[in-house]
Protein 1
Amino acid sequence: MADQVQPVPASSQSSDDASFTENPGKGRGSFPKRGEPVITGINRVGLWSLYIKEVRRFLKVQTQTIWAPAVTTLLFLVIFTVALGREGREILGVNFATFVAPGLIVMGMMQNAFANSSFSLLSGKIQGTIIDLLMPPLSTGELMTGIVTAAVTRAIAVGAAVALAMAFYPGVDLSLAHPWAVAWFGLMGAIMLALMGLLASIWAEKFDHNAAVTNFVIAPLSLLSGTFYVIDNLAPTFQIISRFNPFFYVISGFRFGFLGQSDIGDTNSALVQSALGLGLFNLVFAFLVYRILASGWKIRS
């Protein structure tokens, strides 16, 4: 005789449904209430995945993203030392090649930090893949941190490649006088430009917009910040203008780490004030970029 299927009492069905809806977390196979976060605190797995994705993106084309900037920066050193340094010209008590090398290193770091972070969101908006960054369970702070830290990683890689190339260039001495200044000002410069790049990628709608920021904002601020000269040679008005350029403090502070002297001053106290000022500037700037990113401006519309 065939088995007969016994109907489940309605009371039993309602009690089972209640275990899924009214008492989440209790019973077998229960789910949290709608809108209740499953991941609390920092999503370390998601943050690490985003960081690795961004790092692998520029490492896949490292000839273009790391070694090409190193060669370009080295060419700056060759051209300027040949043009200005043949007669043993000295600045801040060292030959011109040794003077200009630290500025070129940190300038390459900053420009590539900007290039890396400015590509992340912009490429997604143009290719229609930005949903891959917005849909994962990442908070605004985690998304911002992953992109910025990847850009800083590229900046450090470029700086190391440039320094390695310059170490073998005749007449360049890269001895460290104050390692803390090299580490701090290099890091602050990379973070500052990574934040600028992220802001540019939020605003830009096509690659031409991004190129405009690079050519008309980043390049002038980098080249007119004391990379190839000391600001004491400028007219008083332009000296004042230079001191409002945050790139000036990054390059001068980074140079202080190698030479023990800079345009800012020759004492640790003067450099500490500049270091704290850059740190405060980056904190305020990071908060501004965070608020814009969290608003969804030009991203979710």
Protein 2
Amino acid sequence: MTPTYGATRHGLICGYSFEGGAPGQALDLAQALLWLQGPRAPGDFVWLHFNLSDAAAEAWIRKHLPVAPEFFEALHEGSRSTRIEDADGTLVAVVNDVAYEFSFDPAEIETLWVHVSPHLALTARLHPLRTIDVLRQAVRDGLRFASSLAFLNRLLHDQGDVLVRIVRQATVQVDSVEDRLLQGRLQRQRAELGTLRRVLVRLQRLLAPEPGALFRLLRRPPAWVNQDDLDDLRQATEEFSLVIRDAAELQERIRLLQEEIAAQVGEQTNKSVYTLTVVTVLALPINIVAGLLGMNVGGVPLAEDPWGFWVIAAVVVTFTVLAGWWTRRRRDD
């Protein structure tokens, strides 16, 4: 039986059992409970993936599955930073991932909760996520796991691959913005860079594993974790660190581009203000003279003088030249 996406009761999206290193076999909730109650060989486990937007999912998990209380605490606490903790011999992980249709929107970063014990791997999410769906498809295609921790390691590796692609796509966008900046086109570059920087900052803040919890786990792992799986977990976290470092370097590059764009915009603004100032200063003498001579009162000088116009014009030109000379001197200074 191949369960359809999101069609199972109690929020189950998919379920698979892994026995003897063979590919996963699809099962439903009833079959999963029977499997967990029966005899199990070392390394065999069942994977259940739930949709928490179904109100019955959490209640069913609490009632029927041997899940540590720390898992439910992680579901409802405010902090969603990526971490892996040892909870009385089981592993509780909070993994942040991107939405399936990710479009560089900070709001499209969601959380996946994971509970891993020797014979049970439980994952739960509120919205469709790219990494877990990639892993689900790989399991349907015949991917095998030697243990439940190997499943968690594969999940972390897949998430690292998704993050690498995001950083690579962001780098391409930054390269494009930089090329347009060199060409002198500044239409939407500041907005694009701001969006990219917000996404990278949130990715770095949420995806970087908490070093304290990870250090404690690697130093004192549960007794059922073998050394090979522990080395794979250490490698997965090191890959995360490298990708987070690349994201931090890209943030610094974006910041420098934003500063360069701000400097160019400020220079253009200064040029515009200077041009407006020059025009205002040059027009000031003629506006003053026109205002004085245009008053409808008696005693306007040179009103009867045949050379009056040329005298006034000479005065206006003289003061305009003086104003232009003063403005140019101020600019040179």
Protein 3
Amino acid sequence: MTEVPSNHKEISIWFFCGILMLGYGLVLIITGLLELHNPPPTVLANLHPTLWWGVLLSVFGGFYTVRFRPGKG
């Protein structure tokens, strides 16, 4: 049995990981901005970890989304 050549290209799993990280990052940024006005009752609330994690996830998610986007190459 022989394989029939296909014109379809595979989409990298890293592209989907990038989209997920970017989405979660944006949600965390919005949540972190809301927590600036009403901080949670935690010990490290003054460091704004939700906002920083959102920025970090958005940066990495944006990188992976652009780097592994379909049709690149």
Protein 4
Amino acid sequence: MQLTAPAIVVAARPHGETAVIVRAMTEGHGLVAGYVAGGRGRALRPVVIPGNVVEIDLRARSESQLPFARLELVESRGPWLGEPLPAAAIGWVTALTATALPERNAYPNIYRALAAVLDAICHAPSARGWLQGLVAYEALLLRELGYGGAPPPAEAGLEPLLEIFAAHGPLLERYLLADRRGDVMAARTMLHERLGRMRS
């Protein structure tokens, strides 16, 4: 396998003393995984942050081998990880993507939607500016993977969007996240609690 493409980092797991196993979303090849030597070092640690846009170069001798990956940072989400609400939203959408999608299946609509919702989270003045996109992204994942999921109304207010967000939770847990490693829903619960504070 050889691949060079723009990608969005959606997960990074330590491997051994210094390496990282990265999972990244690409437009043409879907979710891909690679071994990043030195990924926990000073130079690469800021690059392998979930949400970051990178140029990924994957190389493997066979289809069964985990590819070696080289990453070049294109856009960092690091500046927003110090803000509780954007950090929770970035953590949730990347964890959901990394956990729900099968590897090496192209989902160009999901790739473009993920890029758009991450941009909105980082650049909208407040969560009111990106919550609709996040709810629409969850609905798109459900729809693309065959479990329905209607997009939110175009001009939905905060309260209806929070209700739709709450309603998506059981569907995501039942259909997309059942029997998956890790408590991915904990990231969503944290986000839900932080969004709920916007009511006050």
